[in-house]
Design goal:
The chain is globular and about 55 Å long. The longest helix is centred in the first third of the chain and has 12 residues. The chain contains two helices and ten strands; from the N terminus they run E-H-E-E-E-E-E-E-E-E-H-E. The strands form three sheets. It has a six-stranded antiparallel beta sheet, with helices on one face. It has a two-stranded antiparallel sheet with strand order 3-4. With about 160 residues, it is an alpha+beta fold.
């Protein structure tokens, strides 16, 4: 009889810092500003983060070999054209859009900066640098262990 091994989600511990960013910048402008501010080299990946067939989020990443860190910038918003609902009446020919969130618990957050590393108190330094950017309204660290949708951030 063959043995079956199961890996539970609690067993998999991924040490990362999660920083929430509030900004009206487009994703490419946010990446440019972060690269200048943090001296990073975030670049768009070829493939997006797909939660379903219709919901995908752009991903920007950078592997910092010198400091042994893996940086990922994720957009929290995905606006898709809704082709299932056809409105009747005055605006019957207008398209409708649906806004999907990567982390629904933080619906007001525009971007998440995820940094995989082992260093303590690293996020305080990064948040201070990000807050110097003129188009960032606010930035703060989030305890990822308290998120219900933490699995959306592990890929």
């Amino acid at each position: 009889m063959a043995t079956t091994h199961k890996i539970f989600e609690d067993f998999y511990e991924d040490a990362f810092v999660l920083i929430a960013l509030h900004s009206s910048l487009e994703d490419y402008a946010m990446v440019y500003a972060l690269n200048r501010c943090l001296k990073s080299n975030l670049k768009r990946t070829r493939e997006d983060l797909d939660l379903s067939q219709q919901i995908s989020f752009p991903v920007f990443e950078w592997r910092d070999v010198i400091h042994d860190r893996y940086w990922t910038l994720l957009n929290n918003n995905c606006i898709k054209e809704d082709d299932t609902s056809i409105e009747q009446g005055l605006f019957g020919e207008e398209l409708t859009y649906t806004n999907h969130k990567l982390v629904p618990e933080y619906k007001d957050v525009d971007y998440f900066l995820k940094v995989e590393q082992d260093e303590d108190n690293f996020e305080e330094q990064v948040v201070k640098l990000i807050l110097t950017l003129p188009n960032v309204v606010t930035a703060y660290a989030i305890d990822a262990d308290q998120l219900k949708s933490k699995s959306n951030l592990i890929f």
